Amino acid sequence: MASVWLLLLTAEPLLVATVERLAAAYGVGVQVSSLGVSSLRAFEQRTSVVGSGVPPALVLVGADHEPAAGLPASASGVPRLLLAVGPPHEGLWRSALELRAEQVVLLPEGEHLLEDRLARLGSTGALTLGVIGGCGGAGASVLAAALARTAAAATPTLLVEMDGFSGGADLLLGAEDEPGLRWPDLASARGRLLPGSLATSLPLIDGVHVLASVRAGPPLQLSVAAVGAVLDSARSEFGVVVVDLPRHLDEASSAAVRALDACLAVVPSEVRAVASAQRVAASLRPLVGDLRAVVRGPAPSGLSPLSICSALDLPLAGLLPPEPRLRAALERGEPPGLRERGPLARFCRELLGPELPGARTGRRGAAQEMLR
After folding, report:
1. Cα(44)–Cα(71) distance, rounded to whole angstroms?
2. Which of 175, 208, 296, 299 could form a disulfide with 170 if both were Cys (CB 3.0 to 4.6 A apart)?
């Protein structure tokens, strides 16, 4: 898995020196691009050849950045800050609005603000897994809930529902009547939430904290800032965070994908499902460094897991056999993975592996071990 890095767009020596010094202290890599359209094009060509393919976790833009140069494609949907040296001026705030910057940081007085943001990037935080359906009805929400229940037996765990058209992660876990916050209550979140605020305010069922969408009314349009604030806080409060993703990614769900340690695409063993999953995988590749396929049986046409993974150009995370009477159990309100000896629960234990009890410490390293 590639290390965390940020993109700095400036030709101001003080900004470069300050950012590189602070980033080095927190183990965050820095790529600097000077001003101008040509330099940004050269940057994109360089990173596409020698880079990891993982986009930056943060974009820092100097106030001297040339507006005509724009931003590189790799910065699309990535949180960004506007940096300036000296006292503020009217044009600075106009630039921040045009840039859609989350924050303006004035140096050297605001160095502590930048340091706090870099500290969060450099922090290993929770093991963060995404689950997405390769096609409609693939069972991604069921697998996400089962993974969260399995992880919760060993470490504090949060299940985050990102699909506004879902039936409700709280309903899936039987927690629809549990008191606590849902996404509408956090839609205006910005920056960093108070420590412990998620663990103390979200519904809790079977040891799993749940951040669910709402089932009534139009789907909530989440902002990148709100998703970033929630996931930043979640990484510091929990040992494992499981994100149930929609198949059609907007800016907010794309930001969630960028925050993942790994993403699992659930693909039924059917020809049309594989064709659909190819498009889903293509949309995810630029956003996450570790993308794997979970192949779900049965296979009516005899498609093998290896042939499916070959068609998707993805490594195999595992084969999920069908679970008898699962649909009836879900209709009765039983949470996924309740049967300890069932295929679903067994698959989740094998996927997360024996390293799960250590997920709360050394989490990014554990991510590779747990999904190896």
Report:
1. 10
2. 175
pLDDT digit string, tens, across residues 52-104: 456 788 889 999 886 666 677 666 667 889 999 988 887 888 888 888 888 89
What is the rounded CA–CA span in Å between residue 241 and residue 235?
A: 7
State the DSSP string of 261-288: SEEEEEEESSHHHHHHHHHHHHHHTTT-
- The type of residue at 60 is L
Taking alpha carbons only, the member of 139, 123, 174, 129 closest to residue 356 is 129
What is the Rg, in whole angstroms, of the alpha carbon atoms belonging to the chain? Answer: 21
**Is 0.85 surpassed by the pTM of this model?**
no
Average pLDDT of every residue of the chain: 84
Paired tokens of 137: 């009805």
